[in-house]
């Protein structure tokens, strides 16, 4: 396994895991957002329900006040008939009461009433005579609360303050948090009360009140909200002793508390909302874990597939490398064989030239000797070409510069009466043109050496210029400073075997041969296409 492959696997694994965990947290964040919306809606509903319930209390108290303003003698039975509908419609009300105002001497309608107050032990004891009393005369429901009949609301400070405020403002007032007449295990409550006026005598006739046990009031009013939020309600004048709380003893999450201010008549309540733990904790939704598991499994499977694919590619690459090495070895063998063939051809041509040399020694005819010598020159040109082919690294081309140098050195050995200059870039000639081109050059050079310099004592020079033209075209020029061609020379009609060979070979390689000649020398220009350059 390479470093790149290891990096690739780790990258795929990391990206897949990041995407999986992102989706995991995104799903849970969506549920957290839903929980927050639920909590916010619950708080809004709680405020609305408490406000609505207290508004209903106002209607009940107003209705009771009107009833007692217009009725002087109300029995328990009539009171129950009048208030039963309210208790049924508003189950959050603990009880409804009527407390007439009396002085030192009792009213005739309540002569049998014993006025009491609470002692330190929570029992009821007869009250010391005061100037004003507001004893409970009528209660609904009566049976569970009958011991409270006769209890003087004016004997307790919070109730007394609320009664005095109700009389002075003629509005419905609420008491501060109070202990109810029957202790209810320390659960606090409050009274919503109104002073009833006697229109004929212009005096306070008594008070009507709604009695509320706070825990029952909240639980019945907010029964759908309490499972979602913990609620603490405090009166602005009694912060250390909350009206209600269902907050567990353990510490709640920092910053999760939401406090709302609520104006209740003459009182100000603060409602503190703390979401239940499951609404603020990380949801750990099953769906998110399934998605996470699926994402991680998919990532692992993807890494496995990528690795298997890499393994397959490695095996395939190894097979390709093996096959390539086999092909390279085969090609190398073929190239070696090809070089060997060209080498053998060159040796065989040299042997042929040697045989012809042996034959020349036995000939008397100058024409025959000249013909064999010309043939030997041509054979040498071909042999030299094959030598250059097998010396080439790929045995696919002949280096024209090196060939021209070797050819001119060979001519110098035959005839030392001239010098030469070669101006040729390093051009490779393809094999299809190498041998014909070598023969053409050899014929032109041989003709120049044999016929252009009749006076060997002069400075005789042969110049060869090779120029690469546009595309694949090459121009080769052979120029001598000899006596020039005969006046009526025509290359197309020249009858010598050399020019016949030149014309045939030019047609073979599609080359164009032109010439210029004067008394100062002759120049042959050979233009041809070189496929090796392409």
Task: Please provide a written account of the structure.
The protein has 534 residues and is an alpha+beta fold. It has ten helices and 19 strands. The strands form five sheets. Strands 1, 4, 5, 6, 7 and 8 form a six-stranded antiparallel sheet that branches. A hairpin with a 4-residue loop joins strand 7 and strand 8. Helix 7 (366-391) runs antiparallel to helix 8 (400-414). The two termini are 42 Å apart. The model has no long low-confidence stretch (mean pLDDT 84).
**How much strand?**
15-25%
N/C terminus separation: 42 Å
Architecture of the largest domain, CATH level 2? 2-Layer Sandwich
The biggest beta sheet reads:
6 strands, antiparallel
Number of strands: 19
Helix content: 40-55%
């Amino acid at each position: 396994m390479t470093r790149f492959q290891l990096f690739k696997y780790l990258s795929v694994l990391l990206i897949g895991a990041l995407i999986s965990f992102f989706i995991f947290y995104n799903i849970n964040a969506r549920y957290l957002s839903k929980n927050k919306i639920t909590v916010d809606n619950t708080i809004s509903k709680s405020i609305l329900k408490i406000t609505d319930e207290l508004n209903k209390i106002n209607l009940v108290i107003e209705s009771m006040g009107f009833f007692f303003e217009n009725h002087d003698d109300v029995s328990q039975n009539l009171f129950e008939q009048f208030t039963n509908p309210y208790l049924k419609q508003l189950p959050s009300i603990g009880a409804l009461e009527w407390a007439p105002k009396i002085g030192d001497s009792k009213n005739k309608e309540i002569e049998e009433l014993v006025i009491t107050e609470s002692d330190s032990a929570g029992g009821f004891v007869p009250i010391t005579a005061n100037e004003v009393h507001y004893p409970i005369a009528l209660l609904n429901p009566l049976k569970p609360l009958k011991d409270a009949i006769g209890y003087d609301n004016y004997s307790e400070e919070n109730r007394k303050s609320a009664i005095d405020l109700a009389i002075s403002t003629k509005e419905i007032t609420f008491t501060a948090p109070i202990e109810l007449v029957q202790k209810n295990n320390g659960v606090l409550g409050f009274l919503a009360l109104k002073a009833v006026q006697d229109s004929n005598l212009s005096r306070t006739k008594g008070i009507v009140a709604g009695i509320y046990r706070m825990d029952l009031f909240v639980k019945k009013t907010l029964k759908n909200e309490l499972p979602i939020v913990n609620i603490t309600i405090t009166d602005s004048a009694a912060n250390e002793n909350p009206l209600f709380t269902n907050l567990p003893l353990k510490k709640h999450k920092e910053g999760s508390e939401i406090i709302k201010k609520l104006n209740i008549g003459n009182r100000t309540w603060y409602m503190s909302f703390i979401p239940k733990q499951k609404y603020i904790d990380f949801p750990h939704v099953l769906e998110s874990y399934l998605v996470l598991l699926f994402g991680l499994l998919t990532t692992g499977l993807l890494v496995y597939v990528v690795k298997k694919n890499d393994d397959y590619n490695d095996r395939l690459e190894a097979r390709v490398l093996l096959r390539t090495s086999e092909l390279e070895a085969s090609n190398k063998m073929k190239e070696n064989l090809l070089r060997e063939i060209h080498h053998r051809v060159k040796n065989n041509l040299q042997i042929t030239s040697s045989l012809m040399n042996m034959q020349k020694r036995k000939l008397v005819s100058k024409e025959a000797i000249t013909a064999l010598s010309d043939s030997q020159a041509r054979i040498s040109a071909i042999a030299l070409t094959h030598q250059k082919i097998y010396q080439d690294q790929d045995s696919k081309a002949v280096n024209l510069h090196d060939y021209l140098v070797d050819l001119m050195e060979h001519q110098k050995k035959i005839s030392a009466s001239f010098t030469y200059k070669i101006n040729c870039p390093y051009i490779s000639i393809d094999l299809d043109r190498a041998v014909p081109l070598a023969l053409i050059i050899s014929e032109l050079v041989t003709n120049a050496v044999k016929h252009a310099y009749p006076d060997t004592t002069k400075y005789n020079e042969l110049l060869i210029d090779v120029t690469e033209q546009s595309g694949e075209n090459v121009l080769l020029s052979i120029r001598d400073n000899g006596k020039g061609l005969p006046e009526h020379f025509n290359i197309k009609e020249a009858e010598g075997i050399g020019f016949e060979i030149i014309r045939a070979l030019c047609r073979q390689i599609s080359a164009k041969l032109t010439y210029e000649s004067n008394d100062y020398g002759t120049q042959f220009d050979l233009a041809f296409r070189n496929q090796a350059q392409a």
